[in-house]
Each structure stands twice: as C-alpha cells, then as structure tokens.
C-alpha cells in the first residue's frame, strides 16, 4: 500500500526532500548480504510505498508540496530532478507570493480556507494514483506560520475527505531559544488541533537532533541540511519495508495501519518519539563493529532513561520493582526520571538477527498497567541493512518522552497569554481568546494523561 506525503511550509518541504533522498539512497545502495530475490522484493515494496513510475523511468515521489512562498518549492523541485534517481511531479505543488509571517492564525484562518480547494484537489489526484492507499504523512513545523497554521488546517481537511485513511503528522519541535517570539503560541494551537484530526504525532525535537549532530556525528558547523538529513535517516529507518511480527514472509502491506495498531492503543495517547542506534560519521563506519546484544541493551536504557542518544545515558535509572504499588503523580516511589511507556516498537535491520534478543523490552515494569507486554511491545525486522549500517536498530515509542518539553511549552505560552502579549496578532485573523483557552485545556488534558501513566 502507498503513502502520500504532504510537505508543508519551508521546514516540511526541506525535510521531505531529504526523506525521499534517504529512501532512494537506501534502495540503490549495495547490499551484498541479501539475495537478489530479497533485494528485488525490498525495492519493489519501497517503490510501491513512496514512488510511482513515469514513462521516462524516473520514479516520481508520491508527494504534494505546499508553501505560501515559492522559493523553497522551486529549489526542492530542481534539486530532486537533478539527482537523476527520482523527482517530484511538476504539477503536484502549490505556492503563492506571500507567506504567513510566522502567524498561525494567518495560515489557519486565511490561507487555509482561501486555498483549500486547490490544495485538496492536488491531494485527491495524488491519492487516486495509488492502487491502494495506506494513508498520509504530513511533514511540518509546529512553530511557524504556514507549516503549523496551514498544516493544522490541511490535516483537518484530510480527515474530513479521507475518513478511512490513516494520518500521521511528523512535526518538528522548535528550538528552546532563538526562534520566533510567538512560537509557543503557534505550537500550542498546532498541537491541540492536530490531536483532534490526526491518528498520531511523530515528534522530532530540534534541540535533540542538533545535539546528535554535534556529539555523535562530529559536525562542527551544523546547518539545517545536516539536521534535516539526520531526521530523514531516522524516518527512513522506520518507514522502509520491514517484516512485521504478523508476517515474517512478506513485507508490511499497510505501513501506517501497522504502525497505528502497534503504537496507538488509545486515542488519548498519540505522541510518538523515535530513537536510532548506532549513529556515527560515515567515515567511522568501516572501523566499527556492533553486536545485537550491545545495541539492544543501549536502546532499552535510552528508552527508560529518556535519552536521545547512546552517549551520556544515565545507567542509574531502573524500572520500578515488581509488585510495587502504582505511584501517584507526586509519589517518590517511582524511580527518578523513569520513562513509562504505553507501547514500543523495535525495528532491527541487518545481519545475524538470530542473535538479537529483545526479551528485555517485554518487562512489565516498562509499561502502563492496562496493557500486557505482549500487547505493548512489537518487533519488526529484516536481514537487509539500512543505508551504510550493517546493523541498526530504531525504537518508536509511545511514552512520557515529551512530557517535560510539552509542559514547559504550555507554561511559557500561558504566561504570555495571561499578560495578553501578542494576542492582537491572532484576533485580527479571527482566532479569539476562547480558541486559545480551548487549546490550553486540550493540551493540559494530554499532559495529565501522560503524567498519570
């Protein structure tokens, strides 16, 4: 089944381009450890999922590009076409001459309704070119104007137009400092609206990705492209074809459906985080060896200690003792900083999978009490390596990982709102104070639900 990607705003279009690049790089890479039949099956599944074939033989991304300014889309189309490996459809994009000025209300209340018919027509045409549609992945920032405001509006339209299709919003969490003064407002409004329309939100935090680029990849002067490439690599490690726990003979046919069934057992809990291991400079790969027991041990500790990378993990964090009572929000019986999970998915790619024992992820102490480990944990795997890593593991987690950043963001936005700061910039586009209050209430409910796990 196919996925249609909707790239929204500057951030969404730049990351979307890197995602398709990473996928193509993986498909065309050399994987001598796998049989010819295995490689062909993998490539066919990938192409059906992300590309359609044109008469000239160059795969065309199943994507719709949307921005209110033309510059980024023009660059994205041109760079993709020059690669020779894949391209975008020249007719599957929409842009205007005027942006949203980092104002969520402008994107949501003005540009969205004004251009709804054109944008949804492009989406409809792309969906009709799929033999079988799994659903949509939107890529967007939560903090800007077009990506967040228009992105929230488009997601709502997708839900109305395709009620039976899955919608996964991939969202970029803003840097804690140094971006836009109203980014906390924009983020609160975006997240609350997406929570109503989307099946799940897969979150990447800019600060975390930046830290990985600096400390693990040893990049001295980190650019947005470095950040976007790392995000694309992580997304590709999950969305490329894989054998699920339900089928060890055929690659997953419904990638979004399988992901939702595995990770989102309750509509109150939709926040997904993503971790990868190993991550290192390409120049170091030839001199590095990895074992599955070592990778899995580190990945598990990254989960429970809520660490974004294998460097600097707090190994003192331990799960609660079996049989201990469920702690209250203010109880001291729960280990400090322990990250409780609702559901976890481990994705293993590479050789010697027989030596990969993921039993440690089935510890009941890792999970909330209302799901058994058998229901809460899933393992997907394939002997085909991903990109240049002979062994790699990804963890997609529905857990408390975002609780602290979300609480902090809502708190900052509330302080601004209490002093009426910048509210007039939103009310002039039709977003009233009651809309803000509804958004705060929705996110405070999310925070409360994750806190009491």
TrEMBL record:
<keyword id="KW-0970">Cilium biogenesis/degradation</keyword>
<dbReference type="InterPro" id="IPR008280">
    <property type="entry name" value="Tub_FtsZ_C"/>
</dbReference>
<dbReference type="GO" id="GO:0005929">
    <property type="term" value="C:cilium"/>
</dbReference>
<dbReference type="GO" id="GO:0007017">
    <property type="term" value="P:microtubule-based process"/>
</dbReference>
<dbReference type="InterPro" id="IPR002967">
    <property type="entry name" value="Delta_tubulin"/>
</dbReference>
<dbReference type="GO" id="GO:0005634">
    <property type="term" value="C:nucleus"/>
</dbReference>
<keyword id="KW-0547">Nucleotide-binding</keyword>
<keyword id="KW-0963">Cytoplasm</keyword>
<dbReference type="GO" id="GO:0005814">
    <property type="term" value="C:centriole"/>
</dbReference>
<keyword id="KW-0342">GTP-binding</keyword>
<protein>
    <recommendedName>
        <fullName>Tubulin delta chain</fullName>
    </recommendedName>
</protein>
<dbReference type="InterPro" id="IPR036525">
    <property type="entry name" value="Tubulin/FtsZ_GTPase_sf"/>
</dbReference>
<comment type="subunit">
    <text>Dimer of alpha and beta chains. A typical microtubule is a hollow water-filled tube with an outer diameter of 25 nm and an inner diameter of 15 nM. Alpha-beta heterodimers associate head-to-tail to form protofilaments running lengthwise along the microtubule wall with the beta-tubulin subunit facing the microtubule plus end conferring a structural polarity. Microtubules usually have 13 protofilaments but different protofilament numbers can be found in some organisms and specialized cells.</text>
</comment>
<dbReference type="GO" id="GO:0005200">
    <property type="term" value="F:structural constituent of cytoskeleton"/>
</dbReference>
<dbReference type="InterPro" id="IPR023123">
    <property type="entry name" value="Tubulin_C"/>
</dbReference>
<keyword id="KW-0493">Microtubule</keyword>
<dbReference type="GO" id="GO:0005737">
    <property type="term" value="C:cytoplasm"/>
</dbReference>
<dbReference type="GO" id="GO:0005874">
    <property type="term" value="C:microtubule"/>
</dbReference>
<dbReference type="InterPro" id="IPR017975">
    <property type="entry name" value="Tubulin_CS"/>
</dbReference>
<comment type="function">
    <text>Acts as a positive regulator of hedgehog signaling and regulates ciliary function.</text>
</comment>
<keyword id="KW-0539">Nucleus</keyword>
<dbReference type="InterPro" id="IPR000217">
    <property type="entry name" value="Tubulin"/>
</dbReference>
<dbReference type="Pfam" id="PF00091">
    <property type="entry name" value="Tubulin"/>
</dbReference>
<dbReference type="InterPro" id="IPR003008">
    <property type="entry name" value="Tubulin_FtsZ_GTPase"/>
</dbReference>
<keyword id="KW-0206">Cytoskeleton</keyword>
<dbReference type="GO" id="GO:0005525">
    <property type="term" value="F:GTP binding"/>
</dbReference>
<comment type="similarity">
    <text>Belongs to the tubulin family.</text>
</comment>
<feature type="domain" description="Tubulin/FtsZ GTPase">
    <location>
        <begin position="47"/>
        <end position="246"/>
    </location>
</feature>
<keyword id="KW-0966">Cell projection</keyword>
<dbReference type="GO" id="GO:0030030">
    <property type="term" value="P:cell projection organization"/>
</dbReference>
